[in-house]
Amino acid sequence: MVTESQAYIELIGYFTENIALFESQDTATTGQTIGSLIEEKISDNVMKFFEQHPDLPQDTRLDVVREADAIVTDLEEFLSRRLEQEATEPQKAFIIEFSALIKNLFDSAFA
Question: Which InterPro entries does the annotation name (predicted)?
């Protein structure tokens, strides 16, 4: 589905191009860890996707959840050393943007 698509590969490329953002040692943080922000924002966008597509069969919904879990796992692998670090505002903004792009992938796949 989504994680096997060319668009996802390009999205991961976009993520890796911005990985230096997560090397920041900025002292102004959001009070949330990078790991919790990733999980929260991707979950929020998956829920929005389901709200916008209420007629999806249960099997398809489960596939979307599995794919979202795989995406979270991919991001956790990239950021393994940084998951427990408190996120800075720029990191939070990037995670929010990236999560929205993931939702767009799902929207495109089911359009």
Answer: Uncharacterised_A0KLC6 (IPR020979)
